[in-house]
Specification:
There is one protein chain. The protein is mainly α. The chain is built from 3 helices and no strands.
Length: 58
C-alpha cells in the first residue's frame, strides 16, 4: 500500500502564499501613501505594480 504525507507540501505552499500576501499588502500600503502625497511615481515603480514578481526590489 502506498502512503503519502502531504503536510510538508501544504506547509511549503502556505509559506509561499503568506509571503505573497505580505508583499501585496506592503505594496498596497506604499502605493496608498504615495497616492495620498500626490506622487505620480507610484505608476512607474515595478515593486509596487508587480510586487510578487519583483521580490520587493526597487
Amino acid at each position: 500500500m502506498i502512503e503519502t504525507n502531504a503536510d510538508s507540501a501544504f506547509q511549503a505552499l502556505e509559506s509561499q502564499l503568506e509571503a505573497q500576501a505580505a508583499a501585496l499588502a506592503e505594496a498596497r500600503r506604499q502605493s496608498s501613501q504615495l497616492a495620498n502625497a500626490g506622487d505620480p511615481t507610484r505608476w512607474r515603480r515595478p515593486d509596487l505594480l508587480w510586487p510578487t514578481f519583483t521580490g520587493g526590489q526597487r
